[in-house]
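quick q for whoever's on today - can somebody do inverse folding on this one?? i tried earlier but teh output was garbage lol. tokens:
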């Protein structure tokens, strides 16, 4: 942010403060993703006041701090997971495909169905922030990657089930990669806090 701007949060004497994970989340929630710097500077005084209020009201450690962190982290987790869906009509986290040539014949499409995924899928178990997803399964058998969706290029293909990866591990690695920025902040901000992806038994509700 340019400190020469009259509405900058840096303008005027203020005591220095450390930006921690919760404050980063406040910016993400209040400002939103992809806004212009002009809008940010216009809102900077209000954002600064909001961040200071949250900072003052936030427990300093332990499970209460994780609970407060979740207030801001849960919506961000959910929004990021929605971005991983193959499409709105196929709301799947596709882990891999199995079979013959995808361009020529139907293949088995494996992954996690996000159709009923709720923000409450992210919760707390002690000092562990947990994300509970539906069990990975065979989602469909059809031709794949012919719709022009660029995400298809990121989905690995295997000739048979024996050579395919564990869909749980594949789904877990994709989610951890997608949430890395937020998880890094969690680890820095709350001593002892960790993250874990879990899978609900088939048919069990996830969040909500």
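ok took a stab at it. sequence:
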């Amino acid at each position: 942010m340019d400190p020469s701007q009259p509405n900058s949060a840096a303008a005027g004497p203020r005591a220095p403060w450390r930006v921690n994970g919760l404050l980063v989340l406040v910016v993400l929630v209040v400002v939103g993703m992809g806004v212009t710097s002009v809008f940010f500077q216009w809102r900077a005084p209000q954002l600064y006041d909001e961040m200071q209020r949250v900072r003052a009201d936030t427990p300093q450690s332990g499970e209460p701090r994780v609970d407060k962190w979740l207030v801001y982290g849960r919506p961000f987790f959910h929004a990021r997971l929605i971005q991983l869906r193959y499409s709105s009509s196929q709301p799947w986290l596709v882990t891999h495909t199995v079979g013959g040539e995808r361009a020529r014949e139907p293949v088995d499409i494996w992954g996690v169905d996000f159709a009923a995924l709720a923000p409450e899928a992210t919760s707390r178990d002690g000092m562990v922030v947990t994300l509970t997803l539906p069990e990975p399964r065979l989602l469909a058998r059809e031709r794949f990657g012919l719709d022009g969706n660029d995400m298809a290029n990121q989905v690995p293909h295997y000739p048979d089930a024996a050579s395919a990866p564990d869909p749980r591990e594949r789904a877990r690695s994709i989610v951890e990669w997608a949430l890395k920025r937020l998880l890094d902040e969690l680890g820095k901000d709350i001593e002892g806090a960790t993250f874990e992806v879990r899978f609900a038994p088939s048919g069990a509700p996830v969040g909500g």
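fwiw Confidence is low (pLDDT under 50) at residues 1-19, 30-36. also The CA atoms of residues 42 and 175 lie 34 Å apart. so keep that in mind when u check it
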